[in-house]
Amino acid sequence: MAKRPTIEQLARESGVSVATVDRVLNRRLPVRTETASRVYEAAVRIGFHAAGLIGQRLREDQPTVRLGFLLLKTDQPFYGAFAQDIADAVAAAQGLRASCKIDFISPQEPAEAVASLEAMAVACDAVAMVAPEHPTLAAAVERLKERGVPVFALLSDFAPAARQAYVGVHNGKVGRTAAWMIARCARPGKVALFVGSHRFHGHELREIGFRAFFREEAPDFTVLDTIVNLEAHELTHEAMLDLQRQHPDLAGVYVAGGGSGGLVTALREMDPGRRPVAVCNELTADRRAALAEGLLTMVIATPRDLICREIVPLMAEALKPGGNAPAQIFLPFNIYLPESV
What is the reported pTM? Predict the structure, then answer.
């Protein structure tokens, strides 16, 4: 039977003295966080019996990091699920004591976004938010940067000169992927594109990628003027029915932001022989059903879990002395087809 690792072995593995290990175990005298972390990591490696206790005390000695998140206040189930994912990621973060505050903002009101950001910055040490690009918001992010409050952009980039980092998918590639699918599955004709707002940098990049693909790779298609749907289901539904009336050769449609519920409703009301190839974002229950029915051809989904696992430690790292983060972190998006749901 193998003997349990001793304090002497732990000291050798940690590169510290036995007295230091004793202080970490029994809190006799203060020990630097870096040293205590080294002892804890060594204890885990060698299977030291009190590794759990050391880790617990290490967490107890850490200050609580207050993390704030601002998401969009819409009728989209995506943001409710995203909020829960964020809360779960903060609670599960290893080696981090953190609290989590989540609020919602209107995507159409820059003044509200600024007010919410400034209020969140009072209650939290670092903030991550989904927001449109706007000069007043960029100025607010710059002020917070000067105060030492890092701000991160989620899903759609904004204030690139002042925000700490962008974490999300490569939206240009998302747009090109949507265009690729339509070009492969539809006969040449008219193609419609919906965005929530031209203020969203992510939507702009999806539009650029979408149009660029057709211009470069599928010139037989004609991309119609972009429609702004304000991420509203009703507007998308009405616009889709109008498009089919105006363009009998409507071959494809891509909803680059929210409002896809209206797309699904309109597709269900159309003659099956005249339905365009349809692509949208985020796999919700209604879109999963629409894929299974053959109403949608593809759904491109944001990897919420990956984003949460990236953003939480990045926010904590940015609060450390000399802490930094890469300017952009692009994560792979998920693709769902009728045969994969």
Answer: 0.81
